[in-house]
Amino acid sequence: MGADIRVENLNAWYGQTHTLKDINLHIPANHATALIGPSGCGKSTFVRCLNRMHETNPIARAEGTVRIGDIDIYKDAAPVEIRRRIGMVFQRPNPFPTMSIYDNVASGLKLNGFRNKRVLDEVVERSLKSAALWDEVKDDLKKKSGASISGGQQQRLCIARALAVDPEVLLMDEPASALDPVSTAKIEDLIFQLKSQYTIVIVTHNMQQAARVAEHTGFFLTGTLVEFDKTHKIFTNPSDKRTEDYITGRFG
Ligand SMILES: Nc1ncnc2c1ncn2[C@@H]1O[C@H](COP(=O)(O)OP(=O)(O)OP(=O)(O)O)[C@@H](O)[C@H]1O
Question: What PANTHER family does its record include (predicted)?
Answer without folding.
Answer: ABC TRANSPORTER I FAMILY MEMBER 17 (PTHR43423)
